[in-house]
Amino acid sequence: MKLKVKNFNWLAGRPVVILNQETAAELNVHVDERVSLSENHKIFAIVDTFENLVQTGEIGLSEEISRILNKKDNSFIEVSPAGVSVAGQLIKKKLSGERLTEKEIQILVSNIVENDLTESEIAYFVSAEKLNGLSRNETIYLTKAMIENGNKLHFNKKIIADKHCTGGIAGNRTTPIVVAICASAGLTLPKTSSRAITSASGTADVIETISRVDFSAKEIEKIVKKVGACLVWGGSLGLAPSDDKIIHVERILNLDIEPQLLSSIMSKKISAGSNHILIDIPYGDGAKTRNLKTAKKLAYHFEDLAKYFKVKLRCVFTKANMPIGNGIGPILEMQDVISVLRNNGPKDLREKSLYLAEELMSLCGIKDSKKKAKQILESGQAYTKFEEIINTQNNREKNSNDFEKRIARLSPARFQENIYAEKSGKIKEIDNKKINSVCRILGTPETISAGVFLHKKLEKVKKGDKILTLYSESKSRLNDAKKFFKESKPIVVK
Q1: Using alpha carbons only, what angle is made at residue 77 by residues 72 and 80, rounded to the nearest 5 degrees?
Q2: Do residues 259 and 134 lie in contact, with contact meaning Cβ atoms separated by under 8 Å?
Q3: CA of 353: how far to CAs of 176, 336, 358, in Å?
Q4: Is 349 found in the same domain as 226?
Q5: Residue 280 is part of a domain; what is its CATH number?
């Protein structure tokens, strides 16, 4: 069918054409299906329908297509239904339980990066991974494709260090502390982090409470060259960009998929230039990894991938039977980080951060790492380095008081509700997943001041003791969270 062209001066984020309902019906296509545009070669685009934007017999072109075709308004172009794309056929193949070749996975990842797949198609691919898993070779192919279809950071250093946690633990904001300690010890750490997927906040969400986190690759290289480290959001860098799109779908579906987790972490680290990687695998009820056996299996897969990509990697296993730190939510977690760097704060967060720092330093060949990590923290060197990193990311001088002003402005949400122990006894369980859900209801991570502050952990309590405080900027959210807390019972006293 020949249709009259109407160019739209807006970016859709992917190749999109606009049809009205009558024209779409004539072509027998529906929203999110594809059409083929025949010019010198075929171009495929995703269909959307609007009645008032285009007339019958017209086709609206998003800027992405207009740039390629360079067609004038009121000229004509041949349009036909495209059917199922090659990538769509590959997704169907994986859904049926078949294995994909390296070339096929390259096609899928390339299509995701180029925005040629709809969110629903990506969701089907994610579901296929969840349903049928990925073989060792498929996981390698996926990791490789993610690396090759994105930007890379380059540093003129023999050792580039990084640390990652597989997640699922509420609070657990060790990364900023570990980076500050290890950078003070002379290590280079281009730390890129994600935003929250299923938790109350990600490292990037927490750092963003006091610092800019979105930078270009060149800006990151400049920051790291100046201060030895960074704490930034990986999503703005174009490192393994397909992963960011997949994570977005995982977040919507509230899914964590092991093969995708492996490829996601390794592709991001390798793309960032890291060659010495520490993986923290928390395990326990409420964590992503439920037991030590599963944690060791996951570690084996990480080590296998590291061997293939010729990077040095170490996995550590940490018990995760409760949240780490007192605050859960971006601002509350940042307050915990600052207090630990000032030699106060939650004991569990301090101890775990020191442990991870000494393990990473040891992996990178630093002797007496345990002693040195503790010395760096207690001397205030880590706090000074953290301030230096944040000031640099905010384009401030080292001696600027901007950092202290930002810290002073941190404050939890205005509406709060205390939860008290209903009986005397000992807290036996604090469910990470349920606590994260409470925080989500309160508004995290979008509302940076929302969250939960734990006054008690796994310890004895008396009836009427304050065990936690809920914070929200919305009274209705606060009430909903309080109701969910009482019904789900994330804290068990026996």
Answers
A1: 150
A2: yes
A3: 9, 12, 9
A4: yes
A5: 3.40.1030.10
Q: Are residues 360 and 290 in the same domain?
A: yes
Instruction: Name the domain count of the chain.
Output: 4
Q: Which of 48, 214, 256, 402 is catalytic?
A: 256
pLDDT in tens, 212-269: 999 998 999 999 999 999 999 987 777 888 887 887 787 777 777 888 889 989 999 9
Neighbours of 154 (CB within 10 A): 11
Q: Which amino acid is at 411?
A: S
From residue 259, alpha-carbon distances to 142, 240, 282, 286 in Å are: 9, 15, 17, 20
The residue range of the domain holding 449 is: 415-493
State residue 262 phi and psi, 5-degree precision: -60, -50
Question: For residues 368 and 398, what is the distance between their CA atoms, to the nearest angstrom?
Answer: 29
Evaluate whether 169 touches 323 at the Cβ level (below 8 Å).
Answer: yes
Q: 286 falls in which pLDDT band (50, 70, 90)? A: low
367 and 224 assigned to the same domain: yes
256 catalytic? Reply is: yes
- Which tokens belong to 239? 């490192």
pLDDT tier, 287 (very low <50, low <70, confident <90, very high otherwise): confident
Average pLDDT across the chain, whole number: 92
* Number of Cα atoms under 13 Å in the Cβ half of residue 11: 2
Residues 212 and 307 in one domain: yes
Same structural domain, 188 and 319: yes
Residues 321 and 289 in one domain: yes
Residue 13 covered by a domain: yes
pTM of this structure: 0.84
CATH number of the domain encompassing residue 437: 3.90.1170.30
Do 202 and 328 fall within a single domain? yes
* Calpha distance 165→180 (Å, rounded): 16
